[in-house]
Hints:
This protein is α+β, with helices and mostly antiparallel strands. It has one domain (2-78): WGR domain (q64v53_bacfr protein fold). 21% of the residues lie in helices and 46% in strands. The protein contains one helix and five strands. A hairpin with a 4-residue loop joins strand 1 (2-9) and strand 2.
Amino acid sequence: MLIVLHKHVPERNQHRFYALAIEPNLFGEWSLIRTWGRIGTAGRQHISWHGTKEEAEQAMQRTLKEKQRRGYVMDDQMIR
Length: 80
């Protein structure tokens, strides 16, 4: 699952993206992969490990809500 958010605030010269993905890892756990940065760059990445897919999905939902509160909007074309 991949979700991409973006935030545009031209008066502050902010053009940012935030991507969330859930993937299984080699150790039987699930990873929440968060990638963020300025649009047009590779950005930065952070991976957090969770014991179950449900835990990873809950962490994804918490992060999604937090980013939406901060002005990010979901790019409907980038949800897979």
